[in-house]
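Changelog-adjacent note: as of this version, every example in the card shows the full chain rather than a window. The one below runs 476 residues end to end.
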Amino acid sequence: MTEAQQRAVAELLRVSPVAEDLGHRFAAAGHQLHLVGGSVRDAMLGRLGDDLDFATDARPEQVLALAAGWADAIWQTGVAFGTVGLQRRGVRLEITTYRSESYRPDSRHPEVVYGDTLVGDLGRRDFTMNAMAVTLPDWRAPTAFTDPFGGMADLAAGRLRTPGRPQDSFSDDPLRMLRTARFAAQLGFTVADDVIAAMTAMVERIAIVSVERVQGELSRLLLSTQPRIGLELLTATGLAAQVLPELPALRMEIDEHHQHKDVYAHTLSVLERAIALEPDGPDLVLRMAALLHDIGKPRTRQHEAGGGVSFHHHEVVGAKLARKRLTALHYPKAFIIDVSLLVELHLRFHGFGRGEWTDAAVRRYVRDAGAQLPRLHLLVRSDCTTRNRRRAAALAAAYDALADRIARLAAAEDLQALRPDLDGTEIMRQLDIPPGPDVGRAYRHLLALRMEQGRLGHDEAVEELRAWAAANGVGS
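Full-length structure tokens:
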């Protein structure tokens, strides 16, 4: 028995009570049941979780009948695609009828056609490493393991290869082209040459896949262990130009005097540095902000007199582009706001490095960042990729100084809740005015004073409010 098979057996033993029990139910009813796909792959990698995938010759209505009274919970949301979801003793199981999926040229959704054989089902899967199966209930039998396309050998070699022609696989489901990049990034595997060639030739086919599915794969890629591998593959094949065109646009021509660095390579380095600084595991907001932080540069590049190059306000332009792209990819509104805010603020720190900020400037920095301040700290530090050790040390020292200023001010003031000393109700009472625009104007005036001077106290704030009201003809 190979090392991979030993790992798989150990993993299967952990879940075998539930899996075997289900297998016996199917066998008693005259149906086949096999652990398949990512579950077999992950078992061989020694990381099988509590989500198991099965294939069967039983139709969905037959699966539902077999699960009734056995499963602790049943989900039917995938029945239209031949999949029934179950839960038993904390283990989640997805049981799918043998099938083949293919897209019509004019459709964004796969057309499900049921199959009749296990090998036929495995042959329509995305990669050979996902085209292996273990038959239940007697998974210990010598004939229980099915690997018709060499998936185990590819898994051992760290190679991504399709069971059949990659052109056929990608035609069946074009999302598999993005999945190739995701698995390469997730597992660190190399991609077979014919797979790369097919991805390159079929890039436009990705347009028929729903935005939600594209977004899901892009997020999984970014959350993988080595997203740079997948992003470089997407860029090299032309897929990035289809789903995230701002990334390949960063490959700007470098002028002969090298007045600016390779923005594309810099961006990928910033992403890697941000990942290394993550305090609590993969953070999609931080990673997306790192990936998009400089996307405004191609739009703002100007060649200055004397051979220099500038990117004035690229952070503002970049924030707008980030909002537009993430909206097009149907990311949640809160996610879009957080990422675009980080893009917009990532450059502001450099003003601190050129001269001492006032306390008011530090307060504005903290207030504008809001809940994203911890991520902004990480993004700004990650953005320093210079090879000049003296400059790198100076930038690090400058940001350390800013972080120390923030900490000292935070100890004296509630920087995360910067508000005027008087709220809207008190403003209306002091000025004897009803709700309306004047209350908002007064509030913003007091907030500006809070930024500039720190806490005023109630009495001083009332004096400032009344002076402002008299100067602006507000109230009695």
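Structural remarks: The longest helix spans residues 3-28.
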